[in-house]
User: Fold Glyoxalase-like domain-containing protein from Micromonospora chersina.
Amino acid sequence: MAGMAIARFPSIVIDCPDPGALARFYGAMLEWKVDVSPDWAEVRAEYGQCISFQQVDEYTPPVWPTQEPPQQMHLDVIVDNLDAAEAAVLDLGATKHPHQPGTSFRVFLDPAGHPFCLCLN
Assistant:
């Protein structure tokens, strides 16, 4: 993969108690299209940029600026091949998280411990 990006088109995923409500807020603020499903929602610009919202049980909002508890979100990036991308990010210093809840994406921790996902779509 020398000379090629490992991933493309990052998407921000924000944890929250009500994904639909938060998506409607940001959709209205940004004038982006809103798509809501039971535990997930997203807002998308016409040019493709997306912000996603994920339902989290017992959500505790961050307290600014103390970060107690810290902000809750993670990065999703689109890849063409999960195995090749996994090898590449592990080589860069990521750690594969033991809990893998899906088959079309994989969860990793960056070198500082922040979660991120490699996603097929």
In short: Residues 3 and 18 are 41 Å apart (CA to CA). The two ends are 20 Å apart (CA to CA).
